[in-house]
Each structure stands twice: as structure tokens, then as C-alpha cells.
Specification:
Helix content: 25-40%
Strand content: 15-25%
Oligomer: single chain
Number of helices: 14
Strand order of the largest sheet: 5-4-13-14-15-12-16
Distance between the termini: 66 Å
Number of strands: 17
Radius of gyration: 22 Å
């Protein structure tokens, strides 16, 4: 029986992945989650899992075959265009046998897959954390839990565990906008369904974007993002809680965009509209190791979604932390735990900084650079490619990308 007792705060994908891996290694673990149940709130959106991170974690957790039941390899279809729908990237979907290594899965399906892999008693619902004391006592609405050898904060952007290791908090990225949805797209708006092609469409121009992604339930998840002041919801001149006002605002903001792109915002379901600000932690965020506590996922390295790496990085965090905890257990338990967690954190800081820099650069290219995407497409795609191929291959691939778009721009 395990001599270590681990507490995980947060039953999102990172926390559940860690719990699953620890259970497979015979280590005692409990997950505390503030929500009342798995269905307490919408877990909308789609995620692309990557070979060396998210998919590697699922394989190690023994869940890859289960993942294949929900995976959408045709979701690898992607369009990257400007506001007039000039397509700089236009790639079709794939199948498992010829995947580009980024199959999609609905966030709700991934979370369900992970939760169902855990014994029922592992996740304690309706445990909303208020604070953590210096002695690692966890204060919840209903009482106090203590006696853990390690507390892992997997509780997201506004982590209540983070203050034990750092006082740094997320800051506004400068990008805000709307999350929208179009249900039953194939039947109601077949033109938009065909445009998305069961994958993703990302359009950028003038410091703004409209994105559309297909979900397994047949709906389209729409994002309308742009460079905005932090108080934009109060100063934009429109009621961001009123559907008609939102659509008027979107039409005004994108009045010179291609009609088929603007349509994503104008036919969106009026019962599912959310105004948001995108926050991030500083690039290179780190802390001095504190025995008995650590962070993974957004709690440790929150970033904007403009590289698609946040969830993948979080799942790799879980995989590597589980290995470190298991090594400590095998070598003698608690007295080796601090050393192993410290080594894990140092590795995580390096991995996270790499992807934070890419995410920030993608955001700056597409939202803060004049003339994008035309003026930045080569370096944008080169940067993304650098996350998928080694540096030697990039010596050949980068020039090819630049040559291709030099020719492309001659005729477009």
C-alpha cells in the first residue's frame, strides 16, 4: 500500500489525468472539485491533442483506445484566412492512419473519459476550496481536510493553491471578445457547415478574428476576438448580455468582412453568448520549490489559446508529475518527494516557457501586427511547425515555407 497521500485540487483534464496515473501506480489520491457534479456547467469547446503531450499522457493512462471512440481525425481540417476569406492555409481532414498528429475531441468527452476511468470515491464533488494554510490544511466551504504529503493545484487560472508558492496572478492579455455557438449547423446552415468542413476556420484581420470549430454534437463553436481595452464590456456602447445588441456590435465590428464569415456571428444561438477577457500568466513564470505543494496546467502557466498548447502541456505535466511521485514512492516515500517534485518543476518551467513564448508571439503576430495575416504568415507557420518537427528538419522546412508564400503573394 502507498505510503504517500496526494491531494489534487481541480477535476479538470489535468487533475483527472494525474489521478488516473497515480492510481495505476498504486498511490493514494483524492481529487477535490468545487463543482457539484460533472454536468454542473457547460464544458464546451474542442481540443486538439498532440502526439508527444496529450496523446502520450492518454497512452500512459491506458486510455488511448477509449479516446479513439470519441476522436475526430477529420477535425484536423483547417483554414487560416484573412477577413476576405483569402486562404493562406487550406488543409483537409484526415483518418487515424494518416493523421497529422492533432486529432480533435470535445472537451466534455475528454473530461468524461477521464472521470469514468477513476473510482467513484476518488473525486469529491462540491468541495470548493477557500484557502490552503501553511501546514497544507485545505479549507473548504464545509470544513477542513488535512494530512496530505503533497497538494497539487490543478484548479485553473484563479488557483487557490497558487498563493502558497507565488503571489503572481494572471493579467489581461489585451484580447477580449465573445464565445458564441451555432447548434445543428449541418441542417440549419449547411453553407457554414461546409465551410468549416468538420474542422476549424481561423480568420484574422485588423486586430480581430472570427473563428469557427466543429464539435462532435454537430454544433459550431464560434469565437469573435479582438484587441480591446480591459473595460470594453462597459464602454463598447452595446449590452453584452443582450443577444440582439451583441449581433449589432459584431456586425459593426466586422462590417467589411466577407459575408460568409460575418454570418457566423449573425446566426449564432441567442441563448449561448458569453463575453470574455483572455488572461495569462507572465511568460517564464516560476517559483521556488515549496515542500508539500506544486502546480500543474493553467494554475502554473496560464496562456491564451493561440497555439493550442495549454491543455496538452497540462496533460504532460500530469504524466511527468505522476512519474516523479512514483519514483519518490519507490525510493522510500516522503523524504524523497521534495527532491523529485523540485526536479519536475524545473523541467516544467522550461517546457512551459517554450510554449508560452510561442503562444505570445502568435497572439502578437495576428492581433497586434499591421497587415496580418499577410505580413506574418511565414513566421507564424514556421513557429507552429517548430513545435512538431526537430530543429534539423526546420533548417529545410522554414525556407520552403517562405518560398511558398513569396510565390503565393505574387498571385494573390
Amino acid at each position: 500500500m502507498s505510503s504517500l497521500k496526494i491531494a489534487i485540487v481541480g477535476a479538470g483534464p489535468a487533475g483527472c489525468t494525474l489521478a488516473r496515473l497515480l492510481i495505476l501506480k498504486g498511490i493514494s489520491v483524492v481529487v477535490f472539485e468545487g463543482e457539484e457534479s460533472p454536468n454542473f456547467r457547460s464544458q464546451g469547446g474542442t481540443l486538439d491533442l498532440h502526439t508527444d503531450t496529450g496523446l502520450a499522457a492518454l497512452r500512459e493512462a491506458g486510455l488511448y483506445d477509449e479516446f479513439l471512440k470519441y476522436a475526430r481525425f477529420d477535425g484536423e481540417a483547417i483554414v487560416i484566412s484573412d477577413k476576405k476569406l483569402l486562404r493562406y492555409v487550406n488543409a483537409g481532414g484526415t483518418e487515424a492512419k494518416n493523421s497529422r498528429g492533432r486529432p480533435e475531441i470535445d472537451r466534455v468527452k475528454l473530461r468524461l473519459l477521464l472521470l469514468e476511468s477513476l473510482p467513484v470515491e476518488v473525486v469529491r464533488w462540491n468541495h470548493r476550496l477557500q484557502k490552503v494554510d501553511a501546514d497544507l490544511s485545505l479549507h473548504f466551504d464545509h470544513g477542513i481536510e488535512k494530512g496530505f504529503d503533497l497538494v497539487v493545484g490543478a484548479d485553473g487560472a484563479w488557483s487557490k493553491v497558487r498563493p502558497l508558492v507565488t503571489q503572481v496572478q494572471p493579467f489581461y492579455s489585451g484580447i477580449g471578445g465573445m464565445n458564441l455557438s451555432i447548434s445543428n449547423a449541418k441542417e440549419r446552415y449547411p453553407d457554414l457547415y461546409d465551410l468549416v468542413n468538420r474542422g476549424s476556420v481561423f480568420t484574422f484581420s485588423d486586430g480581430k478574428s472570427i473563428t469557427a470549430q466543429y464539435l462532435g454534437d454537430g454544433s459550431l463553436s464560434i469565437g469573435a476576438w479582438g484587441v480591446r481595452e480591459e473595460g470594453w464590456m462597459k464602454t463598447c456602447g452595446h449590452d453584452v448580455h443582450d443577444p440582439k445588441s451583441i449581433k449589432e456590435y459584431m456586425a459593426k465590428e466586422h462590417r467589411d468582412w466577407a459575408p460568409e464569415i460575418l454570418k457566423f456571428t449573425q446566426v449564432a444561438d441567442e441563448d449561448n453568448m458569453t463575453a470574455r477577457l483572455l488572461h495569462m500568466l507572465p511568460v517564464g513564470h516560476r517559483w521556488e520549490n515549496r515542500p508539500g505543494v506544486t502546480l500543474i496546467g493553467d494554475s502554473a502557466h496560464l496562456m491564451t489559446p493561440f497555439a493550442g498548447e495549454g491543455l496538452n502541456l497540462a496533460m504532460k505535466d500530469a504524466m511527468l508529475l505522476a512519474r516523479s511521485i512514483s519514483e519518490a514512492e519507490k525510493e522510500g516515500g516522503k523524504k524523497f518527494l521534495t527532491e523529485k517534485v523540485n526536479s519536475f518543476e524545473e523541467d516544467m518551467f522550461k517546457r512551459a516557457t517554450f510554449f508560452q513564448e510561442i503562444t505570445r508571439a502568435n497572439m502578437e503576430d495576428m492581433y497586434f501586427t499591421e497587415g496580418s495575416p499577410r505580413t506574418v504568415i511565414e513566421r507564424y507557420l514556421s513557429r507552429i511547425a517548430s513545435t512538431q518537427v526537430n530543429s534539423f528538419l526546420m533548417l529545410f522546412l522554414r525556407p520552403m515555407i517562405y518560398i511558398y508564400f513569396f510565390c503565393f503573394k505574387l498571385f494573390h
